[in-house]
Amino acid sequence: MVNLDFKRHRRLRSSEAMRSIVRENHLRIEDLIYPLFVIEGENIRQEVPSMPGVYQVSLDLLHDEIKEIEQLGIQAIILFGVPHDKDETGTGAYSDEGIVQQATRLIKKSFPKLLVIADTCLCEYTSHGHCGVIHHHDVDNDASLNLLAETAVSQAKAGADIIAPSNMMDGFVTVIRQALDDAGFEHIPIMSYAVKYASSFYGPFRDAADSTPEFGDRKTYQMDPANRREAFREAQSDIEEGADFLIIKPALSYLDIVREVRNKYDVPIVAYNVSGEYSMVKAAALNGWIDEKNLVMEKLISMKRAGADLLITYHAKDVAKWLLEG
Ligand code: PBG
């Protein structure tokens, strides 16, 4: 046989064992963060119509839900509240009796080892559905910051392990860090939604959390999908202000941003595989058009390959089951 002048890449793909010893990235159960919607009321376990397999769960039914999550080996959940009443200033977000505060206390009492991440935002609690208080038909940055800081402190008081501010007001990491420190929570990390685009991929979430803005959109505070350099300005300021983790959101259409933020910063990077990304896959799977398991595993490993350390994903329970099955 003559020694031809080309490379034989296929040598390293010849069997499952061969492929597995040269595999560069891995998805672990510990990488997964499961988002959970807690709803005010009783005896509710209601499937979100646009997110098959995802439920709004009331406090009295929470125990079984969390038990399942913990038994699967999932280490962290992120909580979103669906309150019964809403008002102009989103009081339910920072009330000590708010739905997320109640849920956090309940979960930490029975499952102390599970990490509870509190999404810190006002949009689920305001009557207008925006992420802050409204002045002259736009969200007032500085007036919203105080309420956000109050929300974070009340979540920490309830026992939240990580605070995840998502409202995209300038300075939120500074004021939340300060407020947490002042209240004796200097040990609680901030997982900042540093790079959050104004995305149509959030549509199903807004059904789940009942947080569609009543007027306008979120483009004066969330980022333009056309921008890349702006992501580094956002990440940079959050790092300087004290963020312990950076979230990039959405994930799939933004893997270039995940990679570049990974290359520039050393903090743990979190990719948020958002609701619309979940629903598209589910819809196709329910129609029998794709192989759900293989497709989900492929999209999640692509997020790890892009540089994410952690993945917030509605697929977490399914993925944990698949990983356990081997
Ligand atoms: C709250 C928040 C949103 C999401 C996470 N936190 C909604 C939004 O910004 O409109 C979206 C998550 C998803 O789509 O899965 N601000």
UniProtKB/TrEMBL annotation:
CC cofactor: Zn(2+)
Domain of life: Bacteria
GO cellular component: cytosol
Pathway the protein acts in: Porphyrin-containing compound metabolism; protoporphyrin-IX biosynthesis; coproporphyrinogen-III from 5-aminolevulinate: step 1/4
Keyword entries, A-Z: Heme biosynthesis, Lyase, Magnesium, Metal-binding, Porphyrin biosynthesis, Zinc
Keyword Magnesium: yes
Positions that bind Zn(2+): 121, 123, 131
PROSITE patterns, A to Z: D_ALA_DEHYDRATASE
GO molecular function: porphobilinogen synthase activity; zinc ion binding
Pfam family, any one: ALAD
Binding positions for Mg(2+) per the UniProt entry: 234
GO biological process, one term: protoporphyrinogen IX biosynthetic process
The keyword Kinase is annotated on this UniProt entry: no
Active site per UniProt: 196, 249
Family the entry assigns: Belongs to the ALAD family.
Role description: Catalyzes an early step in the biosynthesis of tetrapyrroles. Binds two molecules of 5-aminolevulinate per subunit, each at a distinct site, and catalyzes their condensation to form porphobilinogen.
Subunit structure: Homooctamer.
Alphabetical list of PANTHER family matching this protein: DELTA-AMINOLEVULINIC ACID DEHYDRATASE
Name of this chain's protein: Delta-aminolevulinic acid dehydratase
Lineage, broadest ranks: Bacteria, Bacillati, Bacillota, Bacilli, Bacillales
